[in-house]
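Regression check, NAI case 267:
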Amino acid sequence: MQQLKISFIGGGNMAEALIAGLRRAGHEADHICVAEPGEERRKQLAGQYGVRVTAENRAAVTDADMVVLAVKPQQMQVALQGISDAIDANATVVSIAAGLTVAKLASMLGGQAHIVRVMPNTPALVGAGVSVLYSTADEQHRHRAEYLMTACGSAYWLDQEQQMHAVTALSGSGPAYFFLLTEVMEASGVALGLSRELARDLASQTALGAGRMLVESGRPADALRQQVTSPGGTTQAALDMMFREGLPDTVRKALTVACRRSQELAS
Ligand SMILES: NC(=O)C1=CN([C@@H]2O[C@H](COP(=O)(O)OP(=O)(O)OC[C@H]3O[C@@H](n4cnc5c(N)ncnc54)[C@H](O)[C@@H]3O)[C@@H](O)[C@H]2O)C=CC1
Ligand SMILES: O=C(O)[C@@H]1CCC=N1
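Current build output:
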């Protein structure tokens, strides 16, 4: 089957993660184009992934089957200026921007585009992303967007766009929460006398092992936690401290403010 020609508007962190996911899944480099204003960034993406690069958004979209809008929400209006009429009438437009609704994107694009809104996350870089999609476009366009996202990991559909705010707070931003915990665990290992290298490996491998158990064991997180926690033991001492210091409440509040921020970006 002929591969889709996919063009990215913006070649930043999330675009790179999707490009890496596509390349790992066997999507041909010359069927991927990236429009990115940063010269160094263009060189890096071309060098590392073999993709076509340009500084001109309009040049990138003219022959694309799928256009992926991968700029910051605040940059979208400027990025779309002067390109809507160059996007093919049958092209699928995928937006990964936090907050921006399908209706808002449609008005920015002049109303005619086949839009799919997606909230991906950066583990797409290693083929372990999780994405949530929403669209009112027809099957062909939904199917194309799903192809992109499943190349990068797993994908779920929403039937209520409003839920995208909660998704963004949970899985869009979520990798950063786990990275923070891992950073702190690594630093604590060093403070307790381990070498930086060993502490980093132990923290990262523990995150990987815990993540795999969550996905592969079929058991809920609290049951897995209890398996580690010997009564009166070391884990119990650590978890008691985390509860006393309000960690669960802090995480709940953090997701609530992330969700609210997504709503603000939409307005
Ligand atoms: N980073 C993440 O974990 C996730 C990001 N997103 C969304 O992805 C989008 C991009 O985020 P990041 O990759 O983190 O940002 P980023 O800042 O790394 O990438 C944005 C890129 O767009 C380029 N750019 C700026 N103005 C442009 C224009 N007019 N035309 C073309 N390119 C332009 C910038 O030079 C930059 O390389 C955002 O809308 C964000 O909400 C969604 C899910 C996760
Ligand atoms: O921080 C942000 O706004 C974006 C959306 C989800 C992850 N990064």
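Comparison notes: The chain has twelve helices and eight strands. The CA atoms of residues 4 and 184 lie 42 Å apart. No diff flagged against the previous build.
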